[in-house]
Amino acid sequence: VCLTCCSRDVMVRIDGICHRNGVKFFSGDVFGYHGYMFADLGEHDFVEEKPKVSKVHPGVEDGPDTKKARLDSSETTMVKK
Predict the structure, then answer these.
(1) Helix (H) or strand (E) holding 14
(2) SUPFAM superfamilies from the entry (predicted)?
(3) 3-state class (DSSP) for residue 3
(4) Cβ-count burial of 40 within 10 angstroms (0-12 exposed, 13-18 middle, 19+ buried)?
(5) pLDDT per residue over 18-69, tens digit each?
(6) What is the pLDDT of residue 28?
(7) Which value, in Å, is the radius of gyration of the alpha carbons in the chain?
């Protein structure tokens, strides 16, 4: 449910109904340069994009940095949370 241009009492009442029934609720409004947005998503899944960690092969380089894992900015993995 998306709601805008309503009084606070109406928004709280409709959000309560949506929350009890497991329905996602979004509300927002703009007043000139200022505005707000509220979302009650309850239980939900989302995906986060993370850089892939690549392991350095021993013997490729010398020094203390060879044993550290490196972030590969060109590859990413999607993690569901």
Answers:
(1) helix 8-20
(2) Activating enzymes of the ubiquitin-like proteins (SSF69572)
(3) strand
(4) middle
(5) 999 999 999 999 999 999 999 998 887 878 888 877 665 555 555 565 555 5
(6) 95
(7) 23
The CA angle 35-37-40, to the nearest 5 degrees, is 165
- CA torsion 62-63-69-71 (nearest 10°) is -80
Please check whether residue 54 is in contact with residue 68, taking contact to mean a CB–CB distance below 8 angstroms.
no
Q: What is the mean pLDDT of residues 74-81?
A: 76
DSSP string, 27-59: EEEEETTEEEEEEE--S---EEEEEEEEPPPTT
Spatial distance between the Cα atoms of 15 and 75, rounded to a whole number of angstroms: 40
